[in-house]
Design brief:
alpha/beta, ABC transporter transmembrane region fold, 2 domains, 6-stranded mixed beta sheet, 4-stranded antiparallel beta sheet, elongated
Length: about 625
Amino acid sequence: MSNDKRPASSRFRPRGRGSRHFAMSLPAEKPQQFKKTLSRLLQYIRPHLLSLLFVVLAAIIGTIFTILTPRLIGEVTTIIYTGLVDKMNNVPGAIIDFNQIRKILFLLAGLYLVSSLFLYLEHIVMAGVSQRTVYELRKEVSGKIARLPLKYLDSQPHGEILSRVTNDMDLIGSTLQQSMTQVIEAIVTIVGILIMMLLINHWLTFITLLTLPLSFAITTLVTRHSQKHFANQQRELGELNGHIEEMYGGHLVVKAFNYEKESLERFKTINRRLYAAGWQAQFLSGIIMPLLALVNNMGYVFIAVVGSIFVTRGLIAIGHVQAFFQYSKRFSHPIVQTANIANLLQSTIAAAERVFRLLDEDEEIPDREEALEQFSPRGNVHFADVDFSYREGESLIKKLNIDVRAGQTVAIVGPTGAGKTTLVNLMLRFYEVDGGTISIDGVDIKNIQRGALRNIFGMVLQDTWLFNGTIRDNIAYGREGATMKKIVQAARAAHADHFIRTLPQGYDTILKEEASNISYGQRQLLTIARALLADPPILILDEATSNVDTRTEILIQSAMARLMKGRTTFVIAHRLSTIRNADVILVMNRGVIVEQGTHEELLAREGFYADLYRSQFSAA
């Protein structure tokens, strides 16, 4: 099995800083195809239709019961007020009907209890629906990423893909869980309150509705001006975070070049711009609520004046006026809430659109039905008239012919960007050839399942990859079910056993993020031990000693010599001194093999390789 699951070309992928959540009121990102994306998202919710119907029913019942309570509280007020007025006027038999009040209070308690129960059930069931929906969607995305060709993954920043799996999924889940129930509750509340207000008094309802256009105009006007400042705030915040991450990530270089003062000045400049944008955005958004409160209070004043006149004329009970105050106060909230949800829905559909765009990407060409599930080659590799290009019309490799016998060491050299890693990607079928064939022991690699093909390769890369876990698990990553005895044997062969045993927990030592608690050379020895344990017939080595000291380099070269013994080995070399003993040296330039032969043969030709070699050793 390959000792490193990450493809060789990942070294050249663009690195994204990742996406972060920032809790602020930003203008919604608008999707390009709202209806189409919404319809597709609803397809994932359709299996939970019965649960959704229950959620709708529970939301309606819970909200209606809540709407009824102000009217009942108003009845209590009317009973008390009427009884007191009759007593003051010495009306015969005037009393405050506490029995009726008691009944209403018990009814209120029951309504509150039942309303809370249904709203609780609504949110619990909706949470299950949203989590199951996102679970299925996330599982589909995860499977899709595994089936995507390396060509796509190479062209996308890591942060962009990660954002779709995390941030976009979280946004979809939270919107399904919260916004759907809030929309239902808001609609029922608006309709229910409007009906209750109309039942109480048409004129007071008309006064309440008069304030809505003014509230809407204020919200629209302020939001239109604040959006650009929120966008500036987000942009400046992103630049500030990028600057901080860059400075702290490279703090050693910053200090070594005495760049602290310039770094701090740049931070202050960006911070001032962020302050200005944030202050303007918060100021404008902050005046919305006072202005809306002013408009609503004006409405309350009119309701109080007109309601008082109606009470004195006997056109309406005082409890109904009190209930109307409560209804009018609660009427504007669901309207504002619905507007916010509409804004959030835009962002959610845009997030779903990005997820679906990922799901619609072309996948790897499926393995042939007759492809071999298991393959144990000796290690003969043959390239026959291989053509390849990353972009159509821009040929990178043309009519390439290579014949490598089992056990040979093949070095691939050339300047940066010459296409050395491309040959490795083609052998592992990370990319498919445009023409010709690549065969191992006479079997076309297209007739071998990708999993079986990649199991026969072991990789030791310049960019070491170790995951957060024990040293034992990292070495055993290359071979499922490896015993402790085999792990220790591989570590000894890689000259890693000694330093492992000097660690506090030995083989059970937990490697931190990016294995920062051990040295680079020690990391490289662990990757070699992993490859030794995997025992692959074909090796791919990528200048594993380029970033270590001389003593560690000797250990690594000794371990690699043991690893290469009896195996077909492809060495991607930058330092030509390390490949003098290679059986075949392939010299690449601009994606073309310009020379091939042994070290002595290539030097004798006085060609491209000889120039490269002399340029590295000109000082000597």
